[in-house]
Write a structure and sequence with these properties.
Blueprint: E1 9-12, E2 19-21, H1 23-27, H2 34-43, H3 47-54, H4 59-69, H5 74-82, E3 88-91, H6 93-103, E4 109-114, H7 121-127, E5 136-139, H8 140-143, H9 150-160, E6 167-171, H10 174-181, E7 186-189, H11 193-204
Parallel strand pairs: 1-4, 1-6, 4-5, 6-7
Antiparallel strand pairs: 2-3
Helix pairs in contact: 4-5
Length: 209
């Protein structure tokens, strides 16, 4: 009977797992109704538009693209990145505690793999000291690929000498978890810190108390 390959590497997503990021936190200060916010974020400053900056498009370029299309919303469009920090709602502290406990266990290597703009991520490094706990962080904006593109996962595996079958990837996006599984990395779909703690304990055979 073949033995199960042990997990030696834990890879975390950042936004939605550690960092509570939501454009609505900003636009609730700009628009006077949730309906207007939803329309703006689904029709103008869309998630797909934002992801292109995570893929490496310069912020000024994407901003000007929309301003040219929707000049009547120029101020609101420019606010997306000029007031980006107002989209940050704080940390999921319980997830940070899990990270800190794992970091004290020498049998595990800890990395992060994030869809994040190359231009805004330096601000996150200043805002969030917990980022120093990772042995390495692969940022999509630096690499010009975004999850769930297999090439981004493979960059992390190659750069840090990680074996896919010895790693687990944690993300709040199911399609991104599935992207990791497609290259051989086990996946945990993050729902909340307690669920993550239980899933890690079951997978790793440890207690995170």
């Amino acid at each position: 009977m073949s033995q199960k390959t042990p997990i030696t590497t834990i890879i975390f997503d950042l936004g939605g797992v550690f960092v509570d990021w939501n454009p609505k936190y900003l636009y609730r200060k700009i628009f006077d109704s949730e309906t207007k916010i939803d329309e703006f974020l689904t029709e103008i400053c869309t998630n797909e538009w934002n992801l292109e900056h995570d893929r490496g498009r310069p912020l000024w370029e994407g901003t000007q693209l929309l301003v040219n299309q929707y000049p009547q919303y120029e101020a609101e469009i420019r606010a997306y990145y000029s007031r980006w920090v107002e989209m940050l709602g704080g940390l999921l502290e319980e997830t940070v505690v899990i990270l800190e406990k794992l970091k004290k266990m020498p049998q595990y290597r800890i990395y992060a793999l994030t869809n994040w703009s190359q231009e805004t991520f330096p601000f996150a490094r200043v805002l969030y000291p917990f980022l120093q706990l990772f042995e390495g962080i692969v940022v999509s904006g630096d690499e010009k690929f975004i999850k769930p593109d297999a090439r981004l996962y493979k960059i992390l595996l190659k750069r840090y000498g990680v074996k896919a079958d010895e790693a687990v990837f944690i993300d709040d996006s199911l399609k991104n978890v599935e992207g990791g599984e497609a290259v051989g990395i086990k996946g945990i779909h993050f729902q909340n810190p307690q669920q993550l703690k239980e899933d890690l304990e079951s997978l790793l055979g440890i207690e995170l108390n």
